[in-house]
Design goal:
The protein folds into two domains: 89 residues, Rossmann fold (3-Layer(aba) Sandwich); 54 residues, no CATH class. The protein contains seven helices and two strands. Helix 3 links the parallel strand 1 and strand 2.
Amino acid sequence: MIGGDVAPMGPQAVTKIHELFDWAKKSCKGLLLFIDEAYAFLCKHNNTYMSEAQRTALNALLFRTGDQSKDIVLVLPTNQIGDLDLVIVDQIDESLEFPLPGEKGRFKLLKLYLEKYIFQAGSRKSKWFKNLFKNEYQKIEIKGLGDEVIREVATKIEGFSAGK
């Protein structure tokens, strides 16, 4: 789920949160609830921009996560931990930091991306797809994009982050 999806639900958000936790309790496998952009939903209680419905939804989540449970694992990825409500932060058992990658890591990520989404684009399509576009199907060919260029790009994008 995405934290920003809670506000548009209005008063129904509380009901949906309780339904989700009730389902997790009944499920033999439990639930891993991943709330992306958690700060949009789990911001501090005293936030003046928080509607009454959001505040009530936050309280519902706090109520349902107040005790340890074998039924649910809550994952809250954020690069703005300071924006989360302090009660939520206190309830977090484990915290993992994933810092931005160094130059070597950026190089590997760029290579992986280019290999998967550019160099091999279209090569893993099904026979049905290839037959549908018989004459129009072409492989992308890129010249001059070697490791040197990729390494230079990896150097230049230091500090880049999707969250900023």
